Amino acid sequence: MSAPLPELLAPDGAIQAQTARPRARGRARNLRIWLPASFLILLVGACFLWPLVYPVPKPTGGSILTSGLPPLSPGHIFGTDPVGNDILSRILYGGRVSFTVGFSVTAIGLVIGGLLGMAAGYRGGAADAVIMRVLDVLIAFPALVLALAIAEGLGPSEMHVIWALSFFSIPAFGRVARGATVALRERTFMLAARLSGTRGPRVILRHVIPNIAPQLLTFSLLGIGVAMILEGALSFLGLGIPLPEPSWGSMIAYGQQTISASPDLVLIPSAFLFATVVSLNVLGDALRERWGVR
Amino acid sequence: MTAAPAPRPALTRRVAGSPGARLASRRLLAAIPVLWGVTFLTFVVMNLLPGDAAQELLGANATPAEVHQLQIELHLNEPFWVRYGQWLGGLFHGNLGSSLASRQNVSAILGQRLPVTAELLLYAFTASILLAVGLAILAARRPNGLADRISMAVSMIGLSVAPYVLALVLVYIFAVRLQWFPAIGYVPLSQDPVANLRSLTLPAAAIGFPLFSVYTRLLRADIVEQVQREDYIVTARAKGVAPWRILLRHALPNSMFGLITLVALNLGTLVGAVAIIEPIFSLPGVGAILIQSITNHDVPVVEGIVVVFAVVVVLANLLADVLYAVLDPRIRYERSTS
After folding, report:
1. Contact state of A145 with B159 under an 8 Å Cβ cutoff
2. From its phi and psi, is residue A110 left (phi > 0), alpha (psi between -120 and 50) or beta?
3. Which of A92, B99, B119, B242 falls between 20 and 30 A from B61, CA-CA?
4. Dist CA A178 CA A110 (whole Å)
């Protein structure tokens, strides 16, 4: 298996670590990358593709005749909810929403926060001070208040949840990108690039981005999990994805009301959310080790 | 993570005597713009939202005249800058204003609800730090040993589980099934200390377990790195110091720095956890009223809670920096001689 990134781009320690590693531990490490990665690919595939090729009952508009079936009922592996919707189908369609929110929030944070952080770290001086002060305020500010206020003000919808949660991801990515860029600034190749008259944007594109990419990508994996969890948190406060459209978070939030009578309404979506976030975190850890990111 | 040793003008050196006090005053000054930014941002966000408190309080059936009447009563018809100025002026006199919904004094609301939240957070932090230190030392004694593998697995679970999922699973196991702890409700400390702890155990576990996991990972990684790399550990080992003593007396104190920073940073993010966990357990803390106030556009209450948490975060970070200087002579002397 070859490293997903060319060796040249990995930070100094990584190359050494790879050659010095005993084979058995190397295999265990590969497993820690491929196991969560294939689980995630399968799950994303199931959520986005399975309903297209295989007839799955609709996630909404269930019949009262089939309401409240327990798991392992014929035709409904995970049972049905109190209004008769098939839980498996809600898990699949809800997974679409949860993954979409997770990926979008992280992508927005990566692009906007990453650019701000790189600009601050590369330019230094006044730009750095201003950008970091703003991000400091956003970090000190309880972001949930902001996200809640936005979700409340704009009304509940998938798009608004994504924008509201971006207030968490943008400052976080900004911090990471700036820290990594500052660490690069004094390196010889950066100095060489500057001395040879390369312009700022080009230095960032050719030298900064390839070098901080491993750090930002592993951080993104953690970020996707956090965003999926936060999407559920908004649902808990009644400001998430509106009913009847499912998301894992809203399924957990609405299942809460009947937890003593039918705990599986909470436990099934919780298990999917948990397994997904564990996979993302294990994958992030393993890649960080492989790429030698601190 | 120490503050950058930036060159300081001679003026500040003359102002305060001891290095700790100097550091503290400098950090306090730097915190003021951040605190101001937080209050201002809250005000802007709350005011940009469509609708206002008068509309929310009267409901959808209110006539425009009634809404207008209440707006005048609550001073909502005044321009944004006037309202923010008045609120900020009140803040300087220690007056947080009064709730638009209940007309109750915000300080009174906070005085009633903050102790519950404070006790919950104290419980969660104390338990998670103590358990994390214990588990991290057990794990670091033999890296990749059994204890280490278990600690890594447990902390991976804690890092990945959503606090609300944890809360619901705990409720289902320990309150619905085993009935060891109450599922909801709060017993004041003055009424019955044992029942008070029992009523806070599940919510504290839901908030504390993720913290415990982060702290365990951090401490374990730091101790292992020290033991493998640092000369003073080699020296101690060569002198024949017992392994336990090396971990506890030589490695652990150095690892506490990272932990202190992290605890201080965590405090700020816990507003969110509190806002979600408290309502699940029907605890009468600031969490429930915060959500309700955001929905009602009750700006003074939201501002009051945000200000209290922001001040706590700033003070905690400050305390962490001062603790550094107290714990580490190198930081102390570097600052006093530079």
Report:
1. no
2. alpha
3. B99
4. 12
Nearest residue on chain B to A152, alpha-carbon basis: B295
- Residue-wise pLDDT tens digits, B261-271: 788 777 767 77
CA distance A228 to A12: 33
C-alpha dist (Å) from residue B66 to B50, B53, B297: 18, 13, 17
Structure tokens, B126: 């104390």
A205-244 pLDDT, tens digit each: 888 888 888 888 888 988 999 899 888 888 887 777 777 7
- Residue A58 parent element (H or E): none
The rounded distance, in Å, linking the Cα atoms of A279 and A150 is: 30
Contact list, A137 vs chain B (CB under 8 Å): 34, 37-38, 41
Would you call B294 and A152 a contact, using CB atoms and an 8 Å cutoff? yes
Q: What is the 3-state composition of chain B as percent helix, strand, coil, each rounded to the nearest 5?
A: 80, 0, 20
The answer to whether B145 faces chain A, any CB pair under 8 Å, is: no
| Arithmetic mean of pLDDT over chain B | 78
The three-state DSSP-derived secondary structure of B76-120 is: CCCCHHHHHHHHHHHHHCCCCCECCCCCCEHHHHHHHHHHHHHHH
Burial B131-153 (b: 16+ CB within 10 A, else e): bbbebbbbbbbebeeebbeebbe
Q: Taking residues B71-83, report their average pLDDT.
A: 73
A57 preceded by a cis bond (ω within 30 of 0)? no
Give the SS3 label for residue B299: helix
| Confidence at B127, pLDDT banded by 50, 70, 90 | very high
Q: Locate all alpha helices (DSSP H) within chain A, ordered by sequence.
A: 12-20, 23-48, 50-53, 87-108, 114-123, 125-140, 143-154, 158-185, 188-195, 200-203, 209-236, 248-255, 264-291
Determine whether the interchain pair A260/B176 forms a contact, defined as Cβ–Cβ distance below 8 Å: yes
The answer to whether the CB atoms of B160 and A237 lie below 8 A apart is no
CA B156 remoteness from chain centre? 22
Percent of chain A with pLDDT over 70: 79
- Chain B nearest CA to A139, separation (Å): 8
Radius of gyration of the CA atoms of chain A, in A: 22
- The Cα–Cα gap between A191 and B86 comes to 52
Does the structure's ipTM exceed the value 0.85? no
Please tell me which of the candidates B160, B176, B294 has its beta carbon nearest to residue A259. Answer: B176
Number of neighbouring beta carbons within 10 Å of residue B65: 8
More confident residue, A137 or A202: A202
